[in-house]
Design brief:
Number of domains: 1
Helix content: 25-40%
Structural class: alpha+beta
Strand content: 15-25%
Number of helices: 4
CATH architecture: 3-Layer(aba) Sandwich
CATH topology: Trna Endonuclease, Chain: A, domain 1
CATH class: Alpha Beta
Radius of gyration: 17 Å
Distance between the termini: 46 Å
Largest sheet: 4 strands, mixed
Order of helices and strands: HEHEEHEH
Length: 135
């Protein structure tokens, strides 16, 4: 019987750590969360924690499945960024809500790291300080 070879792989960061890294990056590039930048950009993260394991506590308050992790507002236009790890997958609810957002004039996209987020901001014309560079 052959032995299965052990393969060492790099750890894949969980979405929470990716979100924390992106939040730090946005605080540098735009402003702290909930504070408008000099360019009129406002952003914050969305906490998706399930309240004590009881999903009805969220839905009763209008919290829906599929909300993106990062919300950015600029010139009256909403920009939603769904963060995923390198191997993370977008759920059906996320894809459906993203489609509805795009259909109604908002912007929705997926980012896997801070570089993706900066590229999206630049593509969407959202002003940033350019204190960091894309790699």
């Amino acid at each position: 019987m052959g032995r299965k070879r052990f393969k060492l792989t790099s750890p894949v960061p969980r979405e929470h750590s990716v979100q924390a890294q992106v939040a730090h990056l946005l605080a540098i590039e735009i402003a702290p969360p909930g504070v408008a930048s000099l360019h009129g950009v406002l952003w914050w993260s969305v906490d998706h924690a399930n309240a004590a394991g009881l999903p009805h506590l969220r839905t009763r308050r209008g919290v829906i499945a599929g909300l993106a992790d990062i919300y950015v507002e600029h010139q009256g236009r909403a920009h939603h960024i769904e963060l995923k790890t390198a191997t993370g997958r977008v759920s059906a609810e996320q894809r459906t809500l993203g489609s509805h957002i795009n259909d109604t004039g908002g912007r929705w996209a997926i980012a896997r790291d801070g570089n993706d987020v900066l590229r999206l901001l630049d593509q969407w014309g959202v002003p940033r300080h350019r204190r960091t560079t894309l790699s």
